[in-house]
């Protein structure tokens, strides 16, 4: 039987990327619906491209001029070579022609780089999604002036499939979880997420043991689980209950949670002893299975445990009339002074989960 521990956890996106302006300009359009899912590369905002288109046109003209100069310089250097070999011109004239050709080649390279820069800036005027995920509200409106130098943020994209579930555990608990994950099959050691309404998420997560560090002030470790979230039911910042498998136990018993009294001196239950008299029994609680406690020590299979009717007992040690416990909503048919709803301690291995 798996020993399961429930821990309160919070969800965080697996990736968070702010979308900002890489160029200065006026926002002309917002091209997405706030709160929707976007794909990587999807167009989000359109910044006024006119000044950047003009810069591209100017860079193209400069490149064309540089190429024309290179053509002229190359032709002159080619024409001067046989003349220099025949000593019809001075060596310095031929060197000057070669230098002019090299300078023209450098001008072409610089013009090409300037054109690429202008094209990049023109592309940055169309702001697209860097990753796939869910986008929040727009942080700028149409007509707003955005600035690359001030790193204006325009929207925030969060990747929530998969989503991370963070829980704080002690070093000893993390060691037990790691050991259980190594020993158990993947399905048995999967992390199960319980939502606020008590339902369990269909998708199972897995524990991530990489990059663990201990908080020196508390001695706790932030443990992270990766959970598939295709329907987006888990949102960033939610608090959920994570069910973590801590190991396997044998010969354990399941009893309803309300039958156990928990206190600083330990956990106890009332069992039906001889002559139907209640007897207090100290038990060792190992974890939670569904709505029951998993009792590792202190109970034997088949013993009757008092679940409700404590307030109806006349005095300690007085006999009671046990009746089967049908659940928290079932009314007891016995007389108020002697009734006690009891449930048999069931072996955990035989109980449904």
List the helices and strands and how they pair.
Layout: E1 2-20, E2 25-30, E3 37-38, E4 43-47, H1 50-85, H2 91-124, E5 126-128, E6 133-135, E7 145-146, E8 153-170, H3 171-183, E9 192-194, E10 206-208, E11 220-227, E12 239-248, E13 253-256, E14 261-263, E15 266-272, E16 278-289, E17 292-297, E18 304-308, E19 321-324, E20 339-344, E21 346-347
Parallel strand pairs: 19-20
Antiparallel strand pairs: 1-8, 1-12, 2-4, 2-7, 3-6, 4-5, 6-8, 8-11, 9-12, 10-11, 13-17, 13-21, 14-15, 15-16, 16-17, 18-20
Textual characterization of the structure:
The protein is of the alpha+beta class and 353 residues long. Helix content is 24%, strand content 37%. It has 3 helices and 21 strands. The protein has helices spanning 50-85, 91-124, 171-183; strands at residues 2-20, 25-30, 37-38, 43-47, 126-128, 133-135, 145-146, 153-170, 192-194, 206-208, 220-227, 239-248, 253-256, 261-263, 266-272, 278-289, 292-297, 304-308, 321-324, 339-344, 346-347. The strands form 4 sheets. Strands 1, 3, 6, 8, 9, 10, 11 and 12 form an 8-stranded antiparallel beta sheet that branches. A 6-stranded antiparallel beta sheet has the order 14-15-16-17-13-21, with no helix packed on it. Strand 16 (278-289) and strand 17 (292-297) form a beta hairpin. Helix 1 runs antiparallel to helix 2 (91-124). It is elongated and about 130 Å long. The protein starts with a strand and ends in a 6-residue tail after the last strand. The model is unreliable at 328-339 and 349-353 (pLDDT under 50).
